[in-house]
């Protein structure tokens, strides 16, 4: 009964579990967010088990099956459920392998942009003064260019290809993270708990990464999901323009570029890769909306 | 107000210098010899090579090259296209009206549908209209517009045969360019059917380019409206017995429009990025297609000039939006 009078000290593990339960409560209130989350999870599974799920090799050309329509259409064949492209490759298999590329692009781009943006933003916000001014002016310059245009020009400099496209997109998306981190750091750094830590003798690095950063994470996570879908869209756009992944890579944007000349003859070679991009991006955005509602205390209305 | 404007302008100077450094640096960081790179597979003789190096100023120190570049910019010299040998600025100005026409139509469409949809969704929060329109907006926001454009071509040009696939107007019509806007020029020409042809060419690209701004504007309008509708003065107005329509239309909408106008202004960058894709799909002879073509043709002066002009343009539009924002919201001015 002593617990009733003296609150027991809460272990950090219990606190974390509590926070997670809280989070899931708010997140699951948004039906769309939960649907988006499950679709995304399904895509991850598809990407991970692509070799098991895909009926054919994504680059294998069936010379007797050029532009075969999907199975439900006249002339369709059951071995090619979603039909084949102009050189006889199975579209379903290419889409399944394409999931690997899209998710990989999203993860890599967001990781680079997030880590880079956090470090830059922390430095700018923590040190202030001329360091801050210089850094933020550079970010302004990057943001002054339409993102896709800057990414295109960067890829033109670096040379077309998936890796360069990812680097370019990460560079273009990174200022958003830097700005958010800086703003959060500026508002946090004069709060009591930070001053207390400073007085207790915490060093700069500890203050930056252990004291302040964890309290700035919510907007960064929300921006992260947004950037994840943006990265997939931009990479697909670069692929479509011939500047991203190069054929015969089964990247969805690149598949669309290859399919362009057949749009009036074979609707399926165009429709399915785009649908895959749309569903993936939509799922991530749905989940992102839910994340924002769950993490942004301003929108929490109980 | 003047001080506010001057402060905003002063703030832009370093950004603009940064943009010129990026545009200048872009050609310099290309790996390899710049002249050989521009010459491509044709190659050049050693004498011509030295001559070109001197002509382009590559034999001087880098800071001198940059100052020379700035000097040129200040005198309206944005370089010369390697392909057409015309000044880049002139090329840009010739093609810009096409992009402007498309962009204006797209933003008008986005505002005309997005704002009312957002307001209605906020007023009828939780209704089927709210859910349907916001669901649609999220789909639009997630749309790979290059694919969306191809789908529309399949449906409206391929299956239904209603709209042409590419270009700004049918080749049957020819008239001098007066304003550069095909809609106006075709009317001025007085030729029968010219205007209808221009409209039919414009419809699909406009829809494609408007998709993402429309979704963003609808979502932003709804959330701004919801925020304002929860304010005390709105409740007071309702309590006074004013009809809902008047409260929403007069009291709430006016204040909700402030963030919406900012959002609309910020769409200019989105529109420019969208124009690259839209113009490529519909072979629309504007800036976006020109930039892509220039990149593929390795016409680096054109890419350099285009990059600078587009970024400068986006910056100026953002400045105007900022100033408008200060004009309608005095709190910002005195901050």
From TrEMBL, chain A:
Record-annotated membrane-spanning stretches: 33-54, 103-128, 148-173, 262-288
Predominant cellular place of this UniProt entry's protein: membrane
Intracellular or extracellular location(s): Cell membrane
Domain named ABC transmembrane type-1: residues: 99-288
UniProtKB keywords: Cell membrane, Membrane, Peptide transport, Protein transport, Transmembrane, Transmembrane helix, Transport
InterPro entries for this protein: BP-dependent_transpt_permease (IPR050366), MetI-like (IPR000515), MetI-like_sf (IPR035906), OppC_N (IPR025966)
Any GO CC annotation of this UniProt entry: plasma membrane
Cited SUPFAM superfamilies: MetI-like
Membrane topology: Multi-pass membrane protein
Pfam families according to UniProt: BPD_transp_1 (PF00528), OppC_N (PF12911)
GO annotation (BP), single: protein transport
Protein name (record): Dipeptide transport system permease protein
Organism, scientific name: Phyllobacterium leguminum
TrEMBL record, chain B:
Molecular function GO labels: dipeptide transmembrane transporter activity
Membrane topology label: Multi-pass membrane protein
Intracellular or extracellular location(s): Cell membrane
Protein's name according to its UniProt entry: Dipeptide transport system permease protein
UniProt record similarity statement: Belongs to the binding-protein-dependent transport system permease family.
Keyword Membrane: yes
Pfam family, one: BPD_transp_1
Transmembrane segment boundaries: 9-30, 69-89, 101-123, 143-162, 171-188, 194-217, 264-287, 307-328
Keywords: Cell membrane, Membrane, Transmembrane, Transmembrane helix, Transport
Source domain of life: Bacteria
Chief localization: membrane
All copies of domain ABC transmembrane type-1, residue ranges: 96-325
Species per Swiss-Prot/TrEMBL record: Phyllobacterium leguminum
Gene Ontology cellular component annotations, sorted alphabetically: plasma membrane
PANTHER family: DIPEPTIDE TRANSPORT SYSTEM PERMEASE PROTEIN DPPB-RELATED
């Amino acid at each position: 009964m002593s617990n009733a009078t003296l609150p027991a000290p809460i272990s950090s593990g219990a606190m974390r579990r509590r926070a997670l339960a809280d989070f899931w409560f708010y997140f699951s209130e948004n039906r769309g967010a939960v649907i988006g989350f499950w679709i995304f999870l399904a895509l991850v599974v598809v990407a991970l088990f692509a070799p098991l799920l895909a009926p054919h090799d994504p680059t294998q050309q069936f010379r007797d099956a050029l532009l075969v329509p999907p199975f439900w259409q006249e002339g369709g064949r059951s071995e090619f459920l979603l039909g084949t492209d102009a050189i006889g490759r199975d579209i379903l298999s290419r889409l399944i392998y394409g999931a690997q590329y899209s998710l990989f692009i999203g993860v890599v781009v967001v990781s680079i942009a997030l880590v880079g943006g956090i470090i830059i933003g922390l430095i700018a916000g923590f040190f202030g003064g001329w360091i801050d001014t210089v850094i933020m002016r550079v970010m302004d310059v990057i943001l002054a260019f339409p993102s896709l245009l800057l990414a295109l020009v960067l890829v033109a400099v670096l040379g077309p290809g998936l890796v360069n496209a990812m680097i370019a997109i990460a560079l273009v998306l990174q200022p958003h993270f830097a700005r958010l981190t800086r703003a959060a750091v500026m508002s946090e750094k004069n709060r009591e708990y930070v001053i207390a830590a400073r007085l207790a003798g915490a060093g700069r690095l500890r203050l930056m990464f252990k004291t302040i950063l964890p309290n700035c994470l919510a907007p960064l996570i929300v921006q992260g999901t947004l950037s994840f879908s943006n990265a997939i869209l931009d990479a697909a756009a670069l692929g479509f323009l011939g500047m991203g992944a190069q054929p015969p890579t089964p990247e969805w944007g690149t598949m669309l570029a290859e399919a362009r000349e057949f749009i009036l003859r074979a609707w399926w070679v165009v429709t399915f890769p785009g649908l895959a991009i749309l569903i993936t991006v939509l799922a991530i955005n749905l989940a992102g909306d839910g994340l924002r509602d769950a993490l942004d205390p301003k929108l929490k209305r109980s | 107000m003047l001080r506010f404007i001057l402060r905003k302008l002063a703030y832009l100077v370093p950004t603009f210098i940064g943009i010129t450094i990026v545009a200048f640096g872009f050609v310099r960081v290309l790996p390899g010899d710049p002249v050989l790179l521009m010459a491509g597979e044709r190659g050049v003789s050693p004498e011509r090579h030295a001559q070109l190096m001197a002509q382009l100023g590559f034999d001087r120190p880098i800071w001198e090259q940059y100052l020379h570049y700035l000097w040129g910019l200040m005198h309206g010299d944005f370089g010369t296209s390697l392909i057409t040998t015309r000044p880049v600025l002139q090329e840009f100005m010739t093609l810009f009206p096409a992009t402007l026409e498309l962009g204006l139509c797209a933003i008008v469409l986005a505002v005309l549908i997005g704002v009312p949809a957002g307001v209605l969704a906020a007023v009828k929060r939780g209704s089927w209209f709210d859910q349907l329109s916001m669901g649609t907006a999220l789909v639009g926001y997630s749309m790979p517009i290059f694919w969306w454009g191809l789908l529309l071509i399949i449906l409206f040009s391929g299956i239904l045969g209603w709209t042409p696939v590419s270009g700004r107007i049918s080749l049957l019509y020819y008239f001098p360019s007066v304003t550069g806007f095909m809609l106006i020029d075709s009317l001025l020409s007085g030729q029968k059917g010219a205007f209808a042809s221009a409209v039919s060419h414009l419809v699909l690209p406009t829809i494609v380019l408007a998709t993402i701004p429309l979704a963003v504007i609808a979502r932003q309008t709804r959330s701004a409206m919801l925020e304002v509708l929860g304010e005390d003065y709105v409740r007071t107005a309702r309590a006074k017995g004013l009809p809902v329509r008047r409260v929403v239309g007069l009291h709430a909408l006016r204040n909700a429009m402030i963030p919406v106008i900012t959002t609309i202004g910020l769409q200019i960058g989105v529109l420019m990025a969208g124009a690259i894709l839209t113009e490529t799909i519909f072979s629309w002879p504007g800036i976006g297609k020109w930039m892509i073509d220039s990149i593929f043709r390795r016409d680096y002066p054109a890419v350099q000039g285009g990059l600078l002009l587009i970024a400068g343009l986006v910056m100026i539009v953002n400045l105007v939006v900022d100033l408008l924002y200060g004009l309608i919201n005095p709190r910002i001015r005195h901050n």
